[in-house]
Design a protein that fits this description.
alpha/beta, single chain, 335 residues, 7-stranded mixed β-sheet
Length: 335
């Protein structure tokens, strides 16, 4: 076990895969000599050479197209999209090609491509640098979409993603890059699969689902709610596609209430799918209507306004009050 930041844990995971599998190659803008804008790939080109860690032109579609060619030749390319808002030029490659080639070839061709995407807000960045585009890809059959919330998962899940024969979108919560935690590099039979959710805090009155950057906020909300006499179970989704509905169902059948939070806008977001699916599967167990706590349905705002956009502790606690039928922002608390 070693203490490291979430960013360093990803670096460690990338280093292990490069050491263990000569077919793993990294591609991205400024990932080599510079080590990436967040320094996640720092030192890897020095240690593994320019044939394994490749700086690319500023052309996301070309980067993904190159990765497809490498995958056809038996390599396991790991692509870095420098910022979340830069992924859209590669959208056609990911959705129109990468996601479909396995099915288009009747299983003859696999696409073991991992696409690393720093995402989310909270760092005061400029336009196009603080997006949450995950729902575009969870809607696309043929892609796996995962996200980490802590250093241990960051290390383990990036290694699992690269080892997977399916294309994986690996979303990295950029405002959590500098959070530290203990990390073990052991992956064995007891290591959770990257497509399994994790119960972070156990409770029996409300199920609170979060992922990526908001897991820490959800955990804080559970502690605050407990001090107010409400027991909240926090679940880190980890895999956004496929969703581990088995874990979610077990929790909601116990608590009878569901709150889900994410930074992305509400309409058509992942929260909508989770709420709809849990309502279908657990309708008879629900004591109240599920509630979503999300970013508003507007373009991501300038950095000075992002604190008003991002879900926070108060908004999540207000949602807990709503499902518990306690005084909340939608009720007249004076009555």
């Amino acid at each position: 076990m070693a203490a490291m930041t979430l960013a360093a844990a990803i670096t460690s995971g990338l280093r292990r895969t490069l050491e263990e599998d000569p077919k793993v190659v990294l591609l991205g803008e400024d990932i080599g000599k510079l080590g990436g804008v967040f320094r996640v790939t720092d030192g890897l080109q020095r240690d593994f050479g320019t044939d394994r860690v490749m700086d690319t032109p500023l052309a996301e579609s070309a980067i993904l197209g190159t990765a497809v060619g490498l995958a056809y030749r038996g390599y396991r390319p790991v692509v870095e999209i420098q910022f979340d808002g830069f992924i859209y030029p590669a959208f056609n490659q990911i959705v129109g090609q990468v996601a479909k080639l396995h099915y288009r070839t009747a299983g003859a061709v696999r696409m073991p491509i991992t696409v690393r995407v720093p995402y989310g807000g909270g760092i005061g960045a400029v336009e196009h640098h603080s997006e949450s585009p995950e729902a575009y890809f969870t809607h696309t059959s043929g892609l796996r979409v995962v996200t980490c919330s802590n250093p241990q998962d960051a290390h383990t899940m990036i290694r699992q993603a690269i080892a997977c024969d399916d294309p994986v979108l690996f979303f990295e919560p950029k405002r959590r890059y500098w959070v530290k935690g203990e990390v073990s590099d052991v992956i064995d039979g007891s290591t959770p699969s990257m497509d399994r959710a994790r119960v972070v805090v156990e409770g029996d009155q409300v199920t609170l689902v979060a992922y990526g950057p908001l897991v820490s906020t959800a955990t804080d909300a559970a502690l605050a709610a407990l001090a107010d006499g409400v027991s909240v179970e926090v679940i880190d989704l980890r895999s956004l596609s496929p969703v581990d509905f088995e874990t979610l169902e077990a929790s909601v059948r116990k608590t009878g209430r569901l709150v889900i939070t994410h930074e992305a806008q509400q309409f058509g977001g992942l929260g909508a799918e989770v709420v709809a699916s849990i309502t279908e599967r657990c309708f008879a167990h629900l004591e109240s209507a599920p509630v979503r706590v999300t970013g508003p349905d507007v373009p991501y705002p300038p950095a000075k306004l992002e604190e008003h956009f991002l879900p926070n502790l108060d908004r999540i606690l207000d949602a807990v009050d709503r499902v518990m039928a306690r005084p909340n922002s939608l009720t007249d608390w004076r009555g």
